[in-house]
Amino acid sequence: MFRLTEKGEKIQEMFDTIAPRYDFLNRVLSFGIDRSWRRFAVKKIKYAPNGRVLDVATGTGDVALEIAARTPSSVSIAGIDFSKEMVELGKQKVAASPYAGRITIQVAPCEDIPFADGTFDSITIAFGIRNVVDRLQGLKEMHRVLKPGGRVVILEFSTPRFILFEHLYRFYFLKVLPVIGGLFSKFSAYKYLPDSVLEFPSQDQFKSMMSKAGFRDSQHYDLTLGIATVYTGEK
Length: 235
Known about the structure:
Layout: H1 6-29, H2 33-42, E1 52-56, H3 62-69, E2 76-81, H4 84-95, E3 103-107, E4 120-126, H5 135-145, E5 146-157, H6 163-184, H7 187-198, H8 203-212, E6 216-223, E7 228-234
Parallel strand pairs: 1-2, 1-4, 2-3, 4-5
Antiparallel strand pairs: 5-7, 6-7
Helix pairs in contact: 1-4, 6-7
């Protein structure tokens, strides 16, 4: 049975703590742009009639709901997340949506996905891969449960490459964001966020990691001057 590392348990506990204010702060701190990023990512998925899509690190279910809204009713969506509190909130949102019959959400870590080999047409993970302690193992697990010809779509924060914009971004991310987050939730959690983004591998390094996990034809797309990046890879 898979066990989280001590670091993984601390990250899990942090997300359990901030779950009640997570959606609200996402909108405030990103000025609502996170919604357009998720829509862009979901447009990159592949699916077939009666197919299945997995959303890893589903959180409160935003991406799972977006997938349901943009796919035929025959497509089913599964969501997993290692935070029990996030999953409970996600289940409530799904139950109150028009897609309750198509989406299931359960507690599980990315490093140990509870589905059989070759189950899904596509897999998404939005703002979650940087929180996976063993990223290579997480990518390998996503590769395992994809069908041959399936696609992974990964949305993650990144560091802008335009010098002036990068300076403004770092000031907001390192100085302003933790303070605002701390007013409504937990300061340490919103201090962790920018630190984890700045420590994340470069785009080329991450695509190399995707290749090591078995993905082919990896590509990336810069969003909003490089604040966020969408990565895709094929099995």
